[in-house]
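We were asked to recover a plausible sequence for a given structure. The inputs and outputs are reproduced exactly as logged, with field labels preserved.

PROBLEM: sequence recovery
POSITIONS: 176
GIVEN STRUCTURE:
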């Protein structure tokens, strides 16, 4: 890390008056290599560019923590590859649904199920309900949900877990 600071390629702040200079140097040093690597993985220039931008944005958002890492470049590549795998899995699920569409559902049963879930959600304490909606419905990670709720990530995970358990019990009681 010390070597990176001396070379001006670190992600951490170098001084109070130049907070983003080191990130800019890090970007200049790494963006072409990352873009080439992502192009080889995706086979698509525009997708590689989007993934690269997404990875750098995540590093920028976490620059205070990433700057303390021994290898911020490794974190950048891991972030980019995780984003690629996530997109790939999402595309596979969509393709499977297109190839094997599910049979048309009963509209009345769906409305009844939505009503049961809405009633069961109302029985949850507000913090559990909020954690569950943020993580399950809106797809936030525990870090993001914790920031929204003003709690630690672990607390957001616990609240969502408790909410799922309570919701499961409430829905099972309705089935009886």
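RECOVERED SEQUENCE:
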């Amino acid at each position: 890390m010390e070597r990176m600071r001396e070379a001006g390629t670190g992600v951490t702040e170098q001084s109070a008056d130049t907070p983003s200079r080191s990130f800019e140097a890090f970007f200049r040093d790494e963006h072409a290599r990352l873009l080439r690597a992502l192009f080889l993985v995706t086979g698509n220039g525009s997708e590689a560019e989007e993934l690269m931008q997404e990875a750098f944005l995540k590093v920028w958002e976490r620059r205070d923590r990433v700057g303390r890492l021994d290898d911020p470049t490794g974190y950048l590549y891991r972030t980019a590859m995780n984003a690629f795998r996530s997109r790939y899995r999402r595309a596979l699920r969509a393709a499977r649904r297109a190839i094997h569409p599910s049979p048309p559902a009963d509209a009345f049963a769906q409305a009844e199920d939505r009503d049961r879930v809405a009633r069961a959600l109302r029985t949850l304490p507000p913090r559990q309900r909020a954690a569950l909606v943020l993580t399950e419905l809106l797809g936030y990670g525990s870090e993001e949900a914790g920031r929204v709720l003003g709690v630690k990530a672990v607390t957001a995970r616990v609240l969502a877990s408790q909410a799922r358990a309570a919701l499961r019990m409430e829905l099972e009681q309705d089935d009886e």
